Amino acid sequence: MQRFTAKRSVQNISASLWRRCISSTSQTAAAPVKDSDEFLARLPPFDYTPPPYTGPSADAILNKRKEFLSPSMFCLYRKPLNIVDGKMQYLFDESGRRYLDAFAGIAVVNCGHCHPDVVEPVINQIKRLQHPTVLYLNHAIADFSEALASKLPGDLKVVFFTNSGTEANELALMMAKLYTGCQDIVSIRNGYHGNAAGTMGATAQSMWKFNVVQTGTHHAVNPDPYRGVFGSDGEKYARDLQELIQYGTTGHIAGFICEAIQGVGGIVELAPGYLSAAYDIVKKAGGLFIADEVQSGFARTGNFWGFEAHNVVPDIVTMAKGIGNGFPLGAVVTTPEIAGVLTRRCYFNTFGGNAVSSTAGLAVLNVIEKEKLQENASMVGSYLKGKLNQLKEKHEIIGDVRGRGLMLGVELVSDRKLKTPATAETLHIMDQMKELGVLVGKGGYFGNVFRITPPLCFTKDDADYLVEAMDYSMSKM
């Protein structure tokens, strides 16, 4: 295999460089695949043809974005896609071309695009009542909160609705501080928890942190089995957490927040034994254990919640993304005792628990159960992970395959021994795969990890096609 080279700095990566990496606009981006039409003919059959698109072109939309939207917004791919239609695990561009969606709107569309059992109740709710405000009674928010609480263990049964994961995590951090009377929060390096004041402090990647005051947050060493300083030794990482609390705080903390699998950070699983040991350490320090399930929740990992694989019961669980299958919805679930801290003042969220979003959320829970999407995520995810590991044996550029269920990561390196991030190569292969009709995400601090988080209706045939496209794209480098 010819090596695709580019100069890079492994030590640091600026926000502007990272944005260029993710938008795939560099001169080294892939050219169109010559035999893509022949390859696309092998896409698994799918009985849906979108109606003709009559809207503005991709170029016209891009020009409007440049003129009227924030310059911080970026697009994936050398030639941005104009996605106009979606059905289950497939997306369609303005020409009607079909793409296998292995990103699901950043781990959002768990039930599949435009699932009829989500769309229909939402339409019916919109026709009857859109936004009554939670100051009035309405069954939608009550029914959804009851169903959601039933999915959580122990005394986790009080729900606060928000509009996003950032809002949910902000609320959780505030509640932890109020309940404990402490101000120190501990999170893990490489984690991502949002982009508001408190959550930006808890986030531990420089490209997501603006130069504003961020105080009271301490970042423990990341228990990363692939790149971490202690490898897969969860106990050693836990000792670092213990020492961080002993030497960096008063010895008492408000809370500890972490993802069971780091999403933005590159689908990083935590070292075995770490989370259960961390739980004990945090509780002894008087802190609350906050599980950030924004990306790993709602059956994506093969468990309903990511934390379930670690045998811990959090004090607070935050969620968003997959909760609404694309509707703006987030939530914080905690115990009645902890929830009581918000009665000390007035807490209110205008759109949290909106009737339409609540209807969508309840529909999502029903679809996951009815169609056994948790079981499918486990089965197809294990199958796909096995196929990706086989691909790793064939291609030296694959340094690591990791994740659980349908939350998988493939890290690319130009040198397996040194684990040199293959950032430019990742862009090249990603563009090639797009030409072959497969859409994947990308993450990790160096932008060299494929994030594979498809809708949970993904099939083994879909998995086979994804692996074929990745294999072909790597072989042509």
Automatic annotation (TrEMBL):
<dbReference type="GO" id="GO:0005739">
    <property type="term" value="C:mitochondrion"/>
</dbReference>
<dbReference type="InterPro" id="IPR015424">
    <property type="entry name" value="PyrdxlP-dep_Trfase"/>
</dbReference>
<dbReference type="GO" id="GO:0009853">
    <property type="term" value="P:photorespiration"/>
</dbReference>
<dbReference type="InterPro" id="IPR005814">
    <property type="entry name" value="Aminotrans_3"/>
</dbReference>
<comment type="similarity">
    <text>Belongs to the class-III pyridoxal-phosphate-dependent aminotransferase family.</text>
</comment>
<protein>
    <recommendedName>
        <fullName>alanine--glyoxylate transaminase</fullName>
        <ecNumber>2.6.1.44</ecNumber>
    </recommendedName>
</protein>
<dbReference type="Pfam" id="PF00202">
    <property type="entry name" value="Aminotran_3"/>
</dbReference>
<keyword id="KW-0663">Pyridoxal phosphate</keyword>
<dbReference type="GO" id="GO:0008453">
    <property type="term" value="F:alanine-glyoxylate transaminase activity"/>
</dbReference>
<keyword id="KW-0601">Photorespiration</keyword>
<dbReference type="InterPro" id="IPR015421">
    <property type="entry name" value="PyrdxlP-dep_Trfase_major"/>
</dbReference>
<dbReference type="InterPro" id="IPR049704">
    <property type="entry name" value="Aminotrans_3_PPA_site"/>
</dbReference>
<dbReference type="GO" id="GO:0030170">
    <property type="term" value="F:pyridoxal phosphate binding"/>
</dbReference>
<dbReference type="InterPro" id="IPR015422">
    <property type="entry name" value="PyrdxlP-dep_Trfase_small"/>
</dbReference>
